[in-house]
Design goal:
Order of helices and strands: EEEHHHEEEEEEEEHHHHH
Radius of gyration: 24 Å
Number of strands: 11
Distance between the termini: 40 Å
Strand content: 15-25%
Strand order of the largest sheet: 2-11-10-9-7
Number of helices: 8
């Protein structure tokens, strides 16, 4: 595997970060323009509670369309140490929220697992975006793509793994590379129903049903309602 050099300073003050190295398989439109650490201050939490009460939760319907609006209304930019999540400006023109993982790595002396560690906390910052994982590199003050090398020969793999890994090395590998598993998240019916109703096309269908019902075209309105319902079932 490719050794990772993680030398973590005590504090990180920057509020905008970039990706220094990408995986060779990362396509251009999946690449990241910039990364912004975000946290939700108490006053914005209170403001959103008030807005939800005033608008009868309709503000959340609006939030479903505009991630950039959510960023302005719910979060402030902050340092990486303070961040609750990350805002990603992607080359595809969209803005995304991703989970930031803050991990205290165990001390590892095996040079095949890690090349160097010089800070007692050994804290690292990781996130996953578009199926690629990234780790913060304090030397370049940027994020690097994590990849597990698959180009070792059989003899090299045997020499690397002949003695196995101890507990700390296994934990370290698990934190950095994750589980060797595929996870598919399937929303519940009611969550899928809520997500599918938060789009302009569904709102247009509701408007159409109300419009045709108001002029006594009940059969046509019923057909629209039935097709909408079956479409939601099919998507779930």
């Amino acid at each position: 595997m490719e050794p990772l050099e993680i030398i973590q300073p005590v504090e990180i003050y920057a509020k905008i970060y970039y990706v220094d190295k990408y995986d060779d398989l990362c396509e251009k439109h999946f690449k990241i323009k910039k990364i912004v650490p975000l946290k939700s201050p108490c006053w914005k939490k209170g403001l959103n509670i008030v807005l939800n009460i005033i608008t009868v939760l309709l503000i959340n319907y609006l939030y479903g369309f505009f991630n950039r609006l959510v960023k302005v209304m719910k979060y402030n930019e902050c340092t990486l140490d303070e961040a609750e999540l990350l805002g990603i400006y992607c080359n595809d023109g969209e803005f995304y929220f991703v989970e930031l993982r803050k991990i205290d790595l165990p001390k590892v002396d095996n040079p095949d697992v890690i090349s160097s560690q010089s800070n007692s906390s050994r804290k690292c910052f990781l996130f996953t975006f578009k199926l690629f994982s990234y780790i913060y590199n304090p030397n370049t003050k940027a994020f690097n793509s994590i990849k597990y090398s698959i180009y070792h020969t059989k003899e090299e793999i045997f020499n690397l793994m002949i003695n196995g890994l101890n507990k700390d090395e296994r934990i370290y590998q698990k934190y950095i590379y994750g589980e060797c598993d595929l996870f598919f998240h399937i929303d519940s019916f009611f969550r899928a129903l809520f997500k599918n109703t938060c789009n302009f096309f569904f709102a247009f269908q509701i408007y159409s049903m109300v419009l045709w019902s108001s002029v006594n075209y009940y059969t046509y309105a019923s057909v629209i309602a039935a097709l909408t319902f079956f479409d939601l079932l099919k998507k779930h």
